[in-house]
Specification:
Elements lengths: L1 H17 L17 E5 L6 H17 L3 E5 L6 H8 L7 E5 L6 H4 L11 E11 L1 E4 L8 H10 L5 E4 L5 H13 L4 E4 L3 H10 L4 E2 L3 H9 L4 E5 L25 E9 L4 H15 L2 H9 L3 E2 L4 H22 L5
Parallel strand pairs: 1-2, 1-3, 6-7, 6-8
Antiparallel strand pairs: 3-10, 4-10, 4-11, 5-8, 5-9
């Protein structure tokens, strides 16, 4: 009996070795085997929430598992980012990052993660450019005229933004750094109040998103002088980019992409990245993003990693040079 048992065990081991008996596959080959979670760092209603929910719905359909869209607002998205950075690196938790991902650690002393080292970039989903708009009372019809006017203005042209450290504020700081022109920053508590005073003529100019400014530009309440992206905006075909209008190297976009915690296994990260790229290329998804004023992106993980690192480097220099801090 002992001899027969030994012979049987040896046969099974030999069969496994030559592939006659199936061996359990590695865990990642069955990914995902349970619900996934995407953190969203803002309240429902804004673009970050919209993009996060599109991703959740599409990934759920693709993988056949529930994808939980979990809103964790606060600290300009830093709460959701920190939760993600501390999550298990198994691919089941990630978050919809927004522009604050690369600026929060510089602006906020209490942020405790590294925006590059503590995350696995998966895919850039969409971009929303800003646009330089002036009140019609400002006697400038081009970027060149605007900068000339700013240089000659003794007290400085006034720039409205939705708050210190906001994308619009930082876009203005970058323009100052590249042109050596000085503006007077007027921070508001929200984009609505900033836009209201800009349209009313209480401030001279601002850098709202292309989507937010478009109705006012179309009605003649504001004048668009340049878009912040590298390419012209489809919504503003007659408006040059700021770079082509005379400021080489100027490029700013509000970006939205998916990042997970650092050290997600390569096979799982590739699975997620490939699926994100695929879903952003779907015509219905592109239409949803474009209707919200965004430019669909769909970069792969390597491209997105390079983008995040470059964005962090750029804003580190701008913010520290201007000594900007959020109280």
């Amino acid at each position: 009996m002992a001899l027969r048992t030994t012979h049987l065990a040896a046969s099974v081991l030999f069969a496994c070795a030559v592939g006659l008996v199936p061996v359990q596959a590695p865990a990642q080959s069955s990914f995902p085997a349970k619900p996934l979670r995407i953190y969203i760092g803002f309240v429902p209603g804004g673009f970050t929430d919209l993009a996060g929910r599109i991703v959740a719905q599409e990934l759920s359909s693709a993988f056949g598992v529930q994808v939980i869209a979990d809103n964790r607002p606060g600290a300009n998205g830093a709460i959701a980012a920190e939760l993600t950075s501390r999550a298990a690196p198994d691919g089941y938790t990630f978050y919809m990052a927004s522009p604050g991902h690369t600026t929060n650690t510089i602006l906020q002393s209490k942020v405790r993660y590294d925006p590059v080292k503590d995350f696995t970039p998966l895919s850039l989903v969409a971009e929303i450019p800003n646009v330089l708009v002036v009140n019609p009372s400002v006697p400038a019809r081009s970027l060149k005229e605007f900068l000339s006017l700013a240089r000659s203005h003794a007290s400085g042209l006034t720039q409205a933004s939705s708050g210190v450290g906001s994308p619009g504020h930082l876009t203005g700081e970058l323009l100052q750094a590249l042109t050596k022109v000085k503006f007077v920053h007027v921070p508001y508590k929200g984009s609505g109040a900033a836009m209201s005073d800009l349209v009313g003529g209480q401030v001279d100019f601002s850098f709202p998103t292309t989507a937010a400014a478009l109705p006012h530009v179309q009605r003649g309440r504001l004048r668009a002088l340049g878009v912040s992206s590298a390419k012209r905006s489809q919504a503003y075909p007659g408006v040059p980019t700021i770079a082509e209008a005379g400021v080489p190297g100027f490029q700013v976009v509000g970006w939205y992409g998916v990042l997970g915690p650092a050290r997600i296994p390569g096979e799982i990260a590739t699975t997620l990245s490939n699926e994100l790229v695929r879903l952003v290329r779907k015509p219905d998804v592109r239409t949803k993003l474009q209707n919200a004023g965004a430019e669909p992106a769909g970069s792969n993980a390597e491209e997105f990693a390079a983008f995040v690192a470059a964005d962090y480097d750029k804003w580190s220099k701008v913010i520290r040079a201007a000594n900007i801090k959020v109280q």
